[in-house]
Amino acid sequence: MNRVCPWAWHLQSSFKIVSERQGTDPLAWSDADARLAALNEYQILDTAAEQSFENLTLLAARICEAPVALVSLIDRDRPWFKARIGFPDCETDLDRSVCRLVLAEPDVLVIPDLTLDPRTKANPSVTGEPLIRFYAGAPLRTPEGVTIGGLCVIDIKPRPAGLTEIQQETLRALARQLTMLLDLRRKTAELTRTATATATATATAVSESETRFRNMADNAPVMMWVTDPSGFCTYLNARWYEFTGQTLREGEGYGWLDAV
């Protein structure tokens, strides 16, 4: 009887899974719910351009010597570009997207000639305008391990040699930096929401406390007033006005001194 050691069986199984995945659309088996939940947490889709994202995208284009570079986030029915160099649109259709392939990749995906790769040769962006020919993309992966898109570079000419090792390593580093920017943006938004909620709660508590004080003071059988150290009056209770005959306008400020 032939025996297969456990690690060899696992390796064969892994190759089978990768092979099966390469033959299918990554959107069909990737964890769409986790990806969409992560994008929702980041609150990044359809936001205005930000220089920090634009700068990293420009670096990717220059280092990889590519006319097009994109920060592509894969939404439910579209790739949306947080930053773009050399590309006019801020989003495209899923069937035109090559970047969705990074959802299946643990590392940089390089396709030297899109017309020869079975995953992309029928893509409308390959068979028609803008006639793209080369693609390389690094996954954008959250700290929780969810791939939400990619940092990609595109050329209209095939590149049989792909990217150099330095270019690939730089693309990885820029993708990591973009993920850190996204996470920083998320944490900043969370802190802002917390600070806003705290400020609102504090303002509400102060308002309620002031209301309780005024109710108590207005029902007190004695005159009560509130002034600052200079004698400027900010509050006089109902008994004050009843006793002095002053109006609210006459009493507040320094006017209360006229009745003393």
UniProtKB/TrEMBL annotation:
Record has Isomerase as a keyword: no
The protein, known as: Histidine kinase of the HWE family
InterPro entries to which the protein is assigned, alphabetical: GAF, GAF-like_dom_sf, PAS, PAS-like_dom_sf
Organism: Methylorubrum extorquens (Methylobacterium dichloromethanicum)
PAS domain segment(s): 209-260
Signal peptide location: none
Keywords attached to this entry: Kinase, Transferase
Lineage per the UniProt record: Bacteria, Pseudomonadati, Pseudomonadota, Alphaproteobacteria, Hyphomicrobiales
Gene3D superfamilies (UniProt xref): 3.30.450.40, PAS domain
